[in-house]
Specification:
By secondary structure, the protein is α/β, with parallel strands linked by helices. Helices cover 47% and strands 8% of the residues. The chain is globular and about 80 Å long. The protein starts with a helix and ends in a 7-residue tail after the last helix. The structure holds 1,4-dihydronicotinamide adenine dinucleotide (NAI), pyruvic acid and magnesium ion (MG). This is Malic enzyme.
Length: 613
């Protein structure tokens, strides 16, 4: 948007604000309007006895947003301050927070009105992307500092402690918010690539839920962040006088599972249709809980399923650009945890469904490298592999064990290198050069978060592959110029934030009885088709993040359609649109009805939260 059009919008908004209707004087509205601050109309101020309480100026939400941006810019050398500043706004004035976030997810090549007036044009777009503050990379820092920056009296979410296992009903009933539709739950045991942060991990459910609202369309009042306190094995937490969780070693596996079961029973007793997203659990627990609970509860695991779906989507586009037929790809994963195996499984599913490969043929295109080497059937620790690793055992290495990444590249000659190891810088100059020597267009995805854990930067990937790389990273990197042509290259962000808001929104709107594999897979394929003409021409793997709302609406619609064809949708309005009964699968042919699908899209869009006063 140009400075002139922003100005017009502000003037129009100021007229609207002066004309806005009266408000009744009930106490919750009083608080809400008080929180609009200078956005309260003169009439509202009169009726709600706010005169003198808010400053005299009457401002539009756009002007308030500009002030916030100005403040964020002033704080750009201190990301944690930016984060806490935004967090205060999120608490006090959610409408302003989401207006700000949604309008500044990513702004490229644009200078807003206030910046034109006050700031030189060197304001880097990277700093203006609110998503980088409320999500990765800054959320990682915010988690590490959670116990230090916590303001007593604020309610970041619900803390459920092992010590309260017998009283979970009563603890859950203390939640002061509205009945939630969506909850993100972590036990803080593997926060991004930062390890066990204990209850400091609360920043992750908060950040993910902000995206459920901004990108997906959930009502912020109906979101619930949960952090489970099962102890911590991080000595920094134990030694920290300010640590906000229990200073005990993590519970054993049996206690962990019994607590998770008790939590799920209590949550669904109180809120039967609540969708629970499991997030950042240590890998074995992530797989075990998903396997055990997925058919019993309305839940999914974001690190396994959301990440699998988002990376498959970018990979489908990279496959097309690579010029290498699907069956000739060789994919080397660096990292074989919840994310690595989740992504490998989703890619393999696609190779079977879209490429027509048998299970064995598809599996043979994958090599997984963990901290001890390539995962083979005859490695010395093979009998102790956790179950998830055994899905991708190499059985053809004839006793040869490979422990280094460089050696693995020499032996495997991968067309694609996927980093989910949390080892920052693992894709060295030598690694990247080898990928470039072996492939005309190497696929290199350093997906670990936050920024410091990324396996390589975009700058290095471009430099050491001479600009030929097909790239996506978990945390956004700034654009680079092609070393030969000088063309501006914009990197893709392969982060599950493109999937979970829409998968969750679609599943919740459908009132699905469960999240099926087909819903996850179709959400992924749908995302791969969302590139517009310009993005396709530029060779993007993912659409621009500032289009996320529109994209999420399409993805959510497709998730609902799959819930219908899987026979798990229960929302009466959705069922009646297609004339089916709950539990009766819709045929693929009926699901393909273009007019109905358009009507469903409009229905989804109409359900999306829009911040306003
Ligand atoms: N881009 C995205 O959307 C997502 C990114 N992630 C990131 O993926 C990373 C891993 O997550 P999880 O799989 O849950 O963690 P994890 O700790 O279970 O897995 C890490 C894996 O890396 C391996 N590893 C460690 N050092 C290694 C080395 N030097 N060489 C080769 N392998 C090595 C480990 O053996 C393990 O298999 C984290 O940084 C996380 O932030 C996770 C989910 C989504
Ligand atoms: C993005 C995400 O879910 C992770 O890094 O764990
Ligand atoms: Mg995660």
């Amino acid at each position: 948007m140009t400075g002139e059009s922003i100005l017009k919008k502000i003037v129009k908004g100021a007229e609207a604000i002066l004309n806005r209707g009266t408000a009744s004087a009930n106490s919750s509205e009083h608080v809400e309007i008080l929180h609009h601050g200078t956005g309260a109309t003169p009439i509202e101020r009169e009726k709600q006895h706010l005169k003198g309480i808010v400053p005299p100026a009457v401002e539009t939400i756009d002007l308030q947003m500009q002030r916030c941006l100005f403040r964020l810019d002033a704080l750009k050398e201190n990301p944690l301050e930016q984060y806490t500043y935004l967090d205060r706004i999120r608490n006090d004035n959610p409408n302003l927070f989401y207006h700000l976030v949604m309008n500044n997810l990513k702004v490229v090549g644009e200078v807003t009105l206030v910046f034109q007036l006050h700031v030189a044009n060197d304001f880097a777009p990277f700093h203006k992307a609110t998503v980088s503050v409320i999500y990765t990379p800054t959320v990682g820092l915010a988690c590490q500092e959670f116990s230090h920056v916590y303001t007593p009296g604020t309610v970041p979410g619900l803390f459920l402690s092992l010590a309260d296992q017998a009283n979970l009903d009563s603890v859950i009933s203390n939640w002061p918010g509205q009945d939630p539709d969506i909850c993100v739950m972590t036990d803080g045991s593997r926060i991004l690539g930062l390890g066990d942060l204990g209850v400091n991990g609360m920043g992750i459910p908060m950040g993910k839920l902000s995206l459920y609202v901004a990108a997906g369309g959930f009502n912020p009042k109906k979101t619930l962040p949960i952090t489970l306190d099962l102890g911590t094995n991080n000595s920094k937490n134990i030694d920290d006088p300010f640590y906000l969780g229990s200073k005990q070693p993590r519970a054993d596996d049996k206690t962990f599972h019994s607590f998770i079961d008790a939590v799920m029973v209590a949550l669904t007793k109180r809120w039967p249709s609540l969708l629970v997203q499991f997030e950042d659990f240590s890998s074995e627990h992530a797989f075990e809980t998903l396997d055990r609970l997925r058919d019993k509860y309305f839940m999914f695991n974001d690190d396994i399923q959301g990440t699998g779906a988002v990376i498959l989507s970018g990979f489908i586009n990279a496959l097309n650009l690579s010029g290498v037929p699907l069956k000739d790809h060789r994919i080397l994963f660096v990292g074989a945890g919840s994310a690595g195996v989740g992504v490998a499984s989703q890619l393999m599913e696609h190779f079977k469904r879209a490429g027509g490969l048998s299970h064995e043929d598809a599996k043979n295109l994958f090599w997984l490298l963990d901290s001890k080497g390539v995962v083979t059937s005859d490695r010395s620790d093979a009998s102790r592999y956790p179950q998830h690793k055994t899905l991708f055992l190499r059985e053809d290495m004839e006793g040869k064990q490979i422990s280094s990444l460089v050696e693995a590249i020499d032996v495997v000659k991968p067309t694609a290198l996927i980093g989910l190891s949390a080892v920052g810088g693992a894709f060295t100059e030598e690694v990247l050069r080898k990928m470039s020597e072996n492939n005309a267009k190497p696929i290199v995805f350093p997906l670990s978060n936050p920024l410091t854990n990324a396996e390589c930067t975009f700058a290095d990937a471009v430099k050491y592959t001479n600009g030929s790389v097909l790239f996506a990273s978990g945390t956004a990197f700034p654009a680079q110029n092609h070393p030969v042509t000088g063309q501006l290259l914009e990197p893709g962000q392969g982060n599950n934030m493109y999937i979970f808001p829409a998968l969750g929104f679609g599943a919740a709107l459908a009132k699905a009885s469960k999240v099926t594999d087909n819903m996850v897979y179709d959400c992924s394929v749908s995302l791969s088709k969302q590139l517009n003409e310009e993005e396709s021409a530029l060779g993007f793997l993912y659409p621009r993040i500032d289009r996320i709302r529109d994209i999420s609406a399409h993805l959510a619609r497709d998730v609902i359609l799959t819930a219908l064809t899987d026979g798990v949708a229960r929302e009466p309005q959705v069922l009646s649109m297609y004339g089916v009964r709950a539990g009766v699968p819709l045929s693929a042919e009926e699901a393909g009805d273009a007019a109905k699908s358009e009507a469903l899209l409009h229905w989804v869009q109409g359900k999306m939260f829009i911040p306003h006063y």
